[in-house]
Write a structure and sequence with these properties.
single chain, 8 strands
Length: 172
Amino acid sequence: MSEPHSFSTERLRLRPTSIEDAPLVNELFNSPKWLKYIGDRNIHSLEDAKEYIESKMWPQLKRLGFSSYTILRTSDDEKIGFCGLYDREGVEGVDIGFALLEKHEGNGYAYEACHKLKESAFKVFKLTELKAITTADNIASQKLLEKLGMKPIGNTSLPEDYEELLLYHITA
């Protein structure tokens, strides 16, 4: 595999998630909104977070050239969340996902990161479509997906999870 891509916007830098991001994984994956809208990934220590990065994020990065990206604010290099393109079991095709630490919500960072990654999905990675999933009660996520130009196309559920999720779609 060639060197993985990183991306920049006016205010953000997106780079492939690495072991050094384990504290952010541990913090974000245990935040109230993550647990409510995404679910418990059984990350309860830095070691759990490192194992998750190595076993869940890196294999896809090596296989497809894209995966989870850590979002850093360029003004101070603070890590504020994740955005990624995921080949997720239960979703046909690649879906875009995002999550920020709560203190960084409401500043347009999630949209900025997702917009850049959506453009890159089509231009750099040559994908022809993107999907996204969200819970019916996550109105903020739905609004962001629609702002990205994505349209709801139905419902789905992930393996071993019976919650029905909204499914969104956009083509290149």
